[in-house]
Specification:
Elements (H helix, E strand, L loop, with lengths): L19 E2 L21 E5 L4 H12 L6 E6 L7 E4 L2 E4 L1 E2 L10 E4 L3 H13 L3 E4 L33 E4 L3 H17 L1 E10 L6 H15 L18 E2 L11 H13 L6 E8 L6 E9 L5 H9 L4 E3 L11 H4 L5 E8 L8 E8 L3 H14 L2
Parallel strand pairs: 1-4, 2-3, 2-7, 3-6, 7-8, 8-9, 10-12, 14-15
Antiparallel strand pairs: 4-5, 10-13, 11-12, 13-16, 15-16
Helix pairs in contact: 1-8, 3-8
The structure holds NADP nicotinamide-adenine-dinucleotide phosphate.
The site of NADP nicotinamide-adenine-dinucleotide phosphate has 29 residues, from helix 1, helix 2, helix 4 and helix 8.
Length: 378
């Protein structure tokens, strides 16, 4: 079994996004000198800093020594005044307003689509480059939808310091995790059809959903009626169709995001994609079964080699001990794990492949991907 290559985090927000991001320690223990707070570095704003993704932004910024000269912590009026300790400094959460973006170079948004729609364009007008985690702008023409390992060229020419604001969208978490594994194979043999089935964690629905899954688990085990505020149904010891709205064509919004975003990211309006998205009672990290049909043949050994050499991916594919990717194993990790790599016996020759992918969707599916985008702005 391959080991994860990415560096283990020394610290992070706790599972439920409580507000403490302590300064880092070197791998041997003592605190190392921070290089990220620099006078000539960009000024940052984190919008939705108190949420699951917002907290992860802080962890990833610290973990990657992202350079910044200042950082503004923004959330709703409810959280204004709350204190956040980040990299040995204390910050006060401020209420997001139109004036929040004065002098801000890069804003990382994760406060929901309506907030992005309202404040994203205001920020851009003030010269800020917005990296948005919501679905508000993903399918808007001219807004790059970027996975850095897949289509970095989509944001060519957008840089901090050229005096212009811009919007860049982070794809949906399920799309990112799927395409991290499917793209290297697509580049080799061109995917013509993809069938995705997801097993999505509580964390994808935010910090409150994670808290409710934990609460419900206690309640069910104690023989009590479970609290059902978030999904209006029992989540612990259950699974159900993804909670996004069901559209007139019978697909839910999450499924159609996979369909549409794949076409935009691959710049291929002909690729046929279908998806079934399911919420499972896993705390953190999504799993996806992905069936691929290729234009050109691709045998499973070659596919395994391609995946082993792909950036941001780790192959866990040990048939002898029946060991394959799991959500637990990828939780809080940067890399997406792929396994169960096998020829699809229902397709002719080597034109079909099945794979199973797991990725931490708060990390690579949201915060890490957004900060990799921000790194390309420097
Ligand atoms: N969770 C994931 O894995 C994931 C992955 C990809 C994308 N996303 C997207 O990221 C966004 C946030 O998701 P999340 O999971 O982090 O949700 P969450 O845990 O519920 O956090 C929501 C954040 O938005 C803030 N917020 C809400 N209303 C606001 C307002 N009126 N003004 C300013 N801030 C406001 C909240 O601040 P308060 O604490 O003050 O309410 C909180 O910081 C959503 O658009 C989601 O679709 C999430």
């Amino acid at each position: 079994m391959a080991a994860f290559t990415n560096q283990q985090l020394h610290y992070r927000s706790d599972l439920f996004g409580r507000l403490r991001i302590p300064g880092p320690k070197s791998r041997n223990g003592p605190t190392r000198v921070r290089m990220s707070l620099q006078e000539n570095a960009p000024s940052l704003a984190v919008v939705g800093v108190t949420g699951a993704v917002g907290q992860e932004f802080l962890s990833v910024l610290a973990d990657r020594d992202f350079p910044y000269r200042s950082i503004k912590m923004l959330a709703s009026k409810r959280s204004a005044g709350q204190r956040i300790s980040f990299e040995d400094r204390n910050y006060e959460v401020e209420e997001l307003t139109a004036d929040s973006f004065d002098g801000i170079d890069i804003a990382l948004f994760s406060a929901g689509g309506s907030i992005s729609k309202q404040f994203g364009p205001i920020a851009v007008d003030r010269g800020t480059i917005v990296v948005d985690n919501s679905s508000a702008f993903r399918m808007v023409d001219g807004v790059p939808l970027v996975i850095p390992e897949v289509n970095p060229e989509a944001m060519d020419g957008i840089k901090v310091g050229n005096g212009k604001g811009a919007l860049i969208a982070n794809p949906n978490c399920s799309t990112i995790i799927c395409l991290m594994a499917a793209t290297p194979l697509h580049r080799h043999s061109k995917v013509i059809r993809m069938v995705v089935s997801t097993y999505q964690a509580a964390s994808g629905a935010g910090a409150a959903a994670m808290r409710e899954l934990e609460l419900q688990t206690h309640e069910v085990l104690e023989g009590k009626q479970p609290t059902c505020d978030i999904f209006q149904r029992q989540y612990a010891f259950n699974l159900f169709s993804h909670n996004s709205s069901v559209l007139p064509n019978g697909y839910n919004e999450e499924e159609m995001k996979l369909v549409k975003e794949t076409r935009k990211i691959w710049n291929d309006s002909n690729v046929r994609v279908t998806a079934t998205c399911i919420r499972v009672p896993v705390m953190r990290a999504h799993a996806e079964s992905v069936n691929l049909q290729f234009e050109k043949p691709l045998d499973e050994d070659k596919a395994r080699d391609i995946l082993k050499n792909a950036p941001g991916l780790v192959v866990i594919d040990d048939r002898a001990s029946n060991n394959f990717p799991t959500p637990l194993e990828v939780s809080k990790k940067d890399d997406v794990a792929v396994g169960r790599i096998r020829r699809d016996v229902s397709q002719e020759g080597n034109h079909g492949l099945d794979i199973f992918v797991c990725g931490d969707q708060i990390r690579k599916g949201a915060a890490l991907n957004a900060i990799q985008i921000a790194e390309m702005l420097l």
